[in-house]
Amino acid sequence: MDIIISGLLLGGTYALMAMGLNLQYGVARIMNLANGEMLVLGGLAAFWLFTVADLSPITTAVIVAPLAFGGNWLAYRYLLLPLVRRAKSQGQLEVDSILATFGMSFALVGIMVSIHGEYFTYSFLAEPFSILGSTVAQNRLVAFLVAVGIGAGLYYWLNHTYAGTAVRAVSVSTEAAGLVGINVDKISALAFAVGGAVTAVGGTLISTFITLDASIGVIFTMKALIIIIMGGVGDIRGAIIAALILGLVETAVATIVDPGLTLVAAYVIFLAVLLFRPQGLFGRRV
Predict the structure, then answer these.
(1) CB 269 within 8 A of CB 24
(2) What is the mean pLDDT of residues 134-153?
């Protein structure tokens, strides 16, 4: 029971970063390799404001969200959109966007190192809490509940608003979306910005119970990719379920086998999905 509860709490927070990358890749068609660094940047903001101004990470998340939205919108509008317009095929766009965001990830790491080159660690709600006979840290529970709230809000936005419907239309076909009057560039920028904001907020939540540093972003990018491929590109429901599965597997491996093997377990899942179900649990064949 301890493994199940801890795994679900961890997976719920993983879902945020995966939903962010899913919007950026599934809608804006940008494979953002700087996604993990955006998450760590959110964690750095939470750490810095907590230690300097004694500001709650939850409050920091409210501050970080619009800033990350604006930063990602600018990055898409002035760095990535020219690549989208220049690309003659999806393959060329993926190569160009991977190279561009790979460089962006190094730039973000350099900025974070210049701000704080050591570990981001602080104590927030690190008190025990009992659930169904199992004891978990309050910070994990709070992070999970906030992640569930954001995920529910994102699901409602995508399925019950005009902008969300337009986002889903662009994720299916940019050409068809353009034919019915949807401004594809505008909606893609919106999706990229929302994805970055969701990822940064996920970073503020994760920083409450995981020690981060400026160079750890690549690990979270890899985990987000595993979750997206497992759940299906562009499928928010699949991303949530895949994130919960990854959280459960990592917790089980860390508890039963060895904490150092959690990345190995994640890589095994990645290979298994690629070999036996490359379209993901709910995704369309790619």
Answers:
(1) no
(2) 86
